[in-house]
Each structure stands twice: as C-alpha cells, then as structure tokens.
Amino acid sequence: MHPVSLKNVSKIYQLGAVEVPALTDINLEIRGNCFTVICGPSGSGKTTLLNLIACIDRPDRGEVSVAGQPAHAMSDDALSDFRARHLGFIFQNFNLLPVLTAYENVEYPLLLTKMPAAQRRERVLAMLEAVGLADKAANLPGQLSGGQRQRVAIARALATAPKLVLADEPTANLDSQTGAAIIALMRKMQREQRVAFVFSSHDAMVQAQADDTVLLRDGRIVSVTRGEPLEDAAAAELSA
Ligand SMILES: Nc1ncnc2c1ncn2[C@@H]1O[C@H](COP(=O)(O)OP(=O)(O)OP(=O)(O)O)[C@@H](O)[C@H]1O
C-alpha cells in the first residue's frame, strides 16, 4: 500500500468573489521508503499539495488517503490526532519552541504519546545522537546555529517513528553548505528509519537527492519521475 494516494483531487481558494484554482485533478501515489520532492514554479501549488498530504487542509474534490486513512473524510479533531500520531514535520523556519531545550523539543511530541519515561529518554537521546547533537541537548534553540536547529527539528520529526515526514522548503533559510549537510542527514535518516519523506522545494540540490520528483505547473502535474526503488538498488549493489 502506498503511504499517500490522491485521486482526482482539486483545491480552490476563494479570494473574495474570485475562485483561485490552486490544484486541478491531481492523481498521485507517493511510494513508501522513498524521498519524494514536489517542485515547480512559484504559485504552481506545491504548498497546497503538501498541506493536503499533511492533513492540514482538505480538498474541495477528490480523495486523499494517508497511511490507509481517508483524510478527505476525517473531522478536524480526527485529523489533528492523526497528524500527531503518524506524521512528522520539518519547516523552513524550524518551528522549535524557544523556551525548551533541544532535548525538550525532541521530547515534546513523545509526551503526547503514552511512552513510559525511561523509554522516552532513551528515544530522545538516540535521536539527538543520530543527528549529531548529543552534546547540545541542554541548549536552547537561541543557542544553536541554523543548521543545528534544523537537526533538532529532524530529530523531533522522527522521534515518534512516523509513517511519513513532510518538509516545506527545509533548506530555504540555510546557506548552501549547511543546506547540503541537512539534506544528506535527512537522506541518511530516511534510509535508516525506513520512512517516506515528502518535500516541497525550489532547491536543485534537494531535487538531485530525490528518488521521485513530482513537477507541478499551474496546479497540475506535468510529470512524475520515479527513480529505482531502494530495495532494487540495494539488491543490484549486492549482486554486482
Ligand atoms: N489562502 C489563499 N487564498 C487564495 N489563494 C491562495 C491561497 N494560498 C495559495 N493561493 C493561490 O493558490 C496557488 C497555489 O499556491 P501555493 O502556495 O500552493 O504555490 P507554491 O507552488 O507553494 O508557491 P511558492 O513556491 O511561491 O511558495 C497560487 O495561485 C496562490 O496565489
């Protein structure tokens, strides 16, 4: 089963009396355990599509299925509960809570689950270690660089072992060198945790790292480019 499936999806924004068709008749399947990038020019519908996949918004027409659940038909409460349990988020402005330490920011989503304290501590420390920030656990976000903040955000997004991680322009506020390191880290974490990552990005470097690329223009899909599935690539490497 694909972690995300959209069937005949359309989204129209109402701007006063004017209807703005942001997405028109989108049919798309996002593969599991893959790095998928949504790209396209400004205004082409990337954020709108990501918000539908993220269960932040609902379509005006069509069906959105996320991790087997019909997101288009769920109530607001059910959607927010579903987001907390099954999805991870990485934002371009990091969205860390400024009064919480790096440790506490990563712990925060786990407090919403009923994970026992000792297991929670183990998980937080393992995630901070995995993103290379074990020694910064006690720092507040204001005491970290942009790249380090985004590392905390990656650890936080993956702490609950989500089925899907969504990232809206995750490198937009980073210099190109730090952005490249963050993308490499996300790639490593995506493989290790065997989770599907879906990004929106203008960044050619992000696009170059993708398994699958979805190109949008004027709210429609122009092309979907699929790379080799990870399992096949690994098998080919082994048999070479
Ligand atoms: N809240 C809104 N109300 C009205 N129109 C909107 C709203 N949000 C987006 N739009 C319109 O919907 C279309 C798609 O917008 P969207 O933000 O999804 O594009 P995008 O590809 O993410 O753009 P960018 O790369 O500039 O962030 C655009 O024409 C935009 O003007």
TrEMBL record:
Domain ABC transporter: 4-238
Keyword Transport: yes
Listed PROSITE patterns: ABC_TRANSPORTER_1, ABC_TRANSPORTER_2
Xref: Pfam families: ABC_tran (PF00005)
Keyword vocabulary terms for this entry: ATP-binding, Cell membrane, Membrane, Nucleotide-binding, Transport
The keyword Magnesium appears for this protein: no
Protein name: ABC transporter ATP-binding protein
Source organism of this protein record: Roseateles oligotrophus
